[in-house]
């Protein structure tokens, strides 16, 4: 089997690494890839959103399966185009990808299907949104830009003043361009966050082991929201009873509603959840593997990923006999560029990668990296996802940070408390 992975981040490196382990896979390309995928696959200089060139490459190279990593090509319709040309591809159509591409679409679907989520209101005019905020009680609110905003379009606001500032930033100052033509204002849910990813083929739903992400930039869940500063899997906060509730009350009705609407969902359905005192509620949906959740999840997965994704892409997921997992937990620590999630400098040489790679049960997944001659340099905000498996959560954390401490570049940094929640350490944070 020949596979093309689309994307250039840590998620894509994890996909390439896991797919390469399949006995059925003979060759893997990654477009455009990064310095890490260049080691585990063959990089192709085609941008992830250049759908026509990607389709032509897949056709000319007899690619058996294309796996799409990032959300933007999915929302833009890469799956629709590949299917039109008779090419096998894993991911949702553009219509189904609206679950991530439009928060307004998702919130309205959740309300219509009676799926638990935060109370909300939708606005396209700043004056109406500000009037809504001023007319309500003084309480935390969440303001979200409707469209894709690279993980930066969500504002967790402690009070009216912060909420008003968020509205002005999105609707008046157009901080996110067309992605901010509409906003959702919703109640701020309080509890523990969890990420539930499931493989779906339109009918069958196969949940993966639960992960927990760390969105805030700094220790103790403080600082600005990011694309994710680390994750661990499994997340003990989600018990088997809670997971059954999530499947029954959230995943099944979502997939069923989309099918009834004529937009069946195939691909990864990623539910970002808040475990509230009244049960799990949906914060958001993504339509692809999470980043950094994919790293610890795929580190533990022992089932042949290529076979799993091919079954889903061809509507045969019901043939799967179940998933096999390494019973040991995994922890991923994201190393980031100085200044992230704001502006940051690129091109600094990264040292210590070979030393970290020598450690047992450790894999350094590349995200924002590039090759400059023979050197690996930082090229993005989130640069590396240092991932380790251990006998327990504490051991996996120790191994991950031992590897991270061997790696350095000018301004490189990371949170130091990834997975402490799972170890029972009290971490004070804010809701969403």
From TrEMBL:
Reaction catalysis annotation: 5-phospho-beta-D-ribosylamine + glycine + ATP = N(1)-(5-phospho-beta-D-ribosyl)glycinamide + ADP + phosphate + H(+)
GO molecular function, one term: phosphoribosylamine-glycine ligase activity
Pathway: Purine metabolism; IMP biosynthesis via de novo pathway; N(1)-(5-phospho-D-ribosyl)glycinamide from 5-phospho-alpha-D-ribose 1-diphosphate: step 2/2
Keywords: ATP-binding, Ligase, Manganese, Metal-binding, Nucleotide-binding, Purine biosynthesis
EC number: 6.3.4.13
One of the protein's GO biological processes: purine nucleobase biosynthetic process
Residue ranges of domain ATP-grasp in the record: 107-314
SUPFAM superfamilies: Glutathione synthetase ATP-binding domain-like, PreATP-grasp domain, Rudiment single hybrid motif
Classification via InterPro entries: ATP-grasp, ATP_grasp_subdomain_1, PreATP-grasp_dom_sf, PRibGlycinamid_synth_ATP-grasp, PRibGlycinamide_synth, PRibGlycinamide_synth_C-dom, PRibGlycinamide_synth_C_sf, PRibGlycinamide_synth_CS
Class of the enzyme per the UniProt entry, highest EC level: ligase
Keyword Zinc: no
Cofactor(s) for this UniProt protein: Mn(2+); Mg(2+)
HAMAP family hit by this protein: GARS
The family this protein is said to belong to: Belongs to the GARS family.
Name assigned to this protein: Phosphoribosylamine--glycine ligase
Organism in which the protein naturally occurs: Planctomyces bekefii
Gene name per UniProt: purD
